[in-house]
Amino acid sequence: MRLRHYGKPPSRQNDWRTIKSLLPYLWEFRGRVVLALAFLALAKVANVSVPLVLKEIVDALDPTKSLLALPVFFLIAYGLLRLGNSLFGELRDVVFAKVTQRSIRRVALKVFEHLHNLSLRFHLERQTGGMSRDIERGTAGIRFLLNFMLFNILPTLLEIGFVAIILLVKYDPWFFIVTIATLAGYVVFTLIVTEWRMIFRRNMNEMDSKANTRAIDSLLNYETVKYFNNEKFEAGRYDETLQSWEKAAVRNQTSLSFLNSGQGAIIAAGVTLLMFMAGRGVVQGTMSIGDLVLVNAFLIQLYMPLHFLGFVYREIRHSLADMERMFGLLEQGGEVADKPDARELKITGGEIRFEHVGFGYDSRRQVLQEVSFTVPSGHKVAVVGASGAGKSTLSRLLFRFYDATAGRILIDGQDIRDVTQKSLRRTIGIVPQDTVLFNDSIYYNIAYGRPEATRAEIIEAARSAHIHDFVETLPDKYDTLVGERGLKLSGGEKQRVAIARTLLKNPPILVFDEATSALDSRTEKAIQAELQEIATNHTTLVIAHRLSTIMDADQILVMEHGHIVERGTHGELLAQNGAYAHMWALQQQEQKQEEQRLQAVGN
Question: In the chain, pLDDT over 90 holds for what percent of residues?
Answer without folding.
Answer: 0
